[in-house]
Amino acid sequence: MHLVKWSDLEIVNGRIHNIALDSWPCMIHFNGGTFQTQDHTDILPIIVDRMEATKDQKGEHANLNDYQQIVTDTCVPCSQVWGTQL
């Protein structure tokens, strides 16, 4: 998840979809503190809850747009394709 913007992710039918790369990763890995929101909340339980909520809902989408992603000197999320910063 290093350099990945959370807005590049959506959760569809219980799975993560990386919109920027049009991929469906089977796992995600957060480097260092990149799993935190700006107020230092852990985003992982939120992702799991949204995956659970959409897994049996055909076509149901969820995202993380309600949460402000942490930005530090070593974690500046940017688009994987276009290179723009958060």
Descriptive overview:
This protein has a three-stranded antiparallel beta sheet with strand order 2-1-3, covered by helices on one side. The protein is built from one helix and three strands, in the order ββαβ. It has one helix at 44-54, and strands at 9-12, 15-18, 61-62. The protein has 86 residues and is mostly loops. It has one domain. It is globular and about 40 Å long.
- Helix/strand/pairing class, anyone? little secondary structure
Figure out the total of helices: 1
Percent helix: 10-25%
The average pLDDT score comes to 84
Tell me the β content: 5-15%
Distance between the termini: 14 Å
Strand ordering within the main sheet: 2-1-3
Instruction: Calculate Rg over CA atoms.
Output: 13 Å
Helix and strand topology:
Layout: E1 9-12, E2 15-18, H1 44-54, E3 61-62
Antiparallel strand pairs: 1-2, 1-3
Short description:
The protein is low in regular secondary structure and 86 residues long. It has 1 helix and 3 strands; from the N terminus they run ββαβ.
List keywords for this structure.
86 residues; little secondary structure; 3-stranded antiparallel sheet; 1 helix; 13% helix
